[in-house]
Specification:
- The chain is mainly alpha-helical.
- About 80% of the residues lie in helices and about 0% in strands.
- It contains eight helices and no strands.
- The chain starts with 12 loop residues before the first helix and ends with a helix.
Length: about 180
């Protein structure tokens, strides 16, 4: 991940880069000092960007190639503003901190959405298990219940209505669960 380095620590790539940039280092030297501090995965990716820059590719072009190579939305949120800021003389450290805040907010929103949809997933389980459970309890109390239910026209109408309502409930829950941040 771009924002966090280890678990819940807040000294992610963007924090480290911003700190080095505030100290007056260039982006390339900041990358060189930051890469060894990163965890596996992002370390190799940022090492690749650094290697491209050391081979003579402008940092902005290296970042663009990295963005295209990974195709992740978070990478685009990091690379695009940075590419615009580099030639313009914008305060890159402040931009990195703002990008970090945006990415953290997106991560929090994604977790909040996941926890909110957990209720819908539980409702789906209850919706699925309640009718058979209810039928089992009723057949235990009255052993003639299920044969009467399946044998009478009124019972078949009730089963049809229950089926339609269950499918409708499943479609509503599926629609809730398909929401994206």
């Amino acid at each position: 991940r771009i924002v966090e380095v280890r678990g819940n620590r807040d000294d992610g790539l963007l924090d480290l880069l911003a700190g080095h940039m505030k100290a007056g280092h260039s982006l390339t030297s900041s990358l060189a000092e930051t890469v060894p501090l990163l965890p596996p995965g992002i370390r190799e990716e940022m090492g690749w960007v650094l290697q491209q820059a050391r081979l003579g590719t402008p940092v902005a072009d290296s970042l663009l190639a990295w963005e295209k190579r990974l195709g992740a939305e978070e990478v685009s949120l990091f690379v695009r503003p940075l590419r615009v800021a580099l030639p313009g003389g914008v305060n890159v450290a402040e931009l990195l901190e703002q990008t970090r805040d945006i990415l953290r907010l997106r991560a929090r929103m994604r977790e909040k959405l996941r926890s909110m949809t957990a209720q819908a997933r539980l409702q789906a389980v209850v919706l699925t298990l309640l009718p058979p459970g209810f039928a089992a309890v009723l057949s235990f109390i009255d052993p003639g219940f299920l044969p009467t239910l399946f044998g009478s026209p009124l019972g078949k109408a009730i089963l049809s209505a229950v089926s339609v309502l269950m499918v409708t409930g499943w479609l509503v829950i599926r629609n809730i669960l398909s929401a994206r941040p």
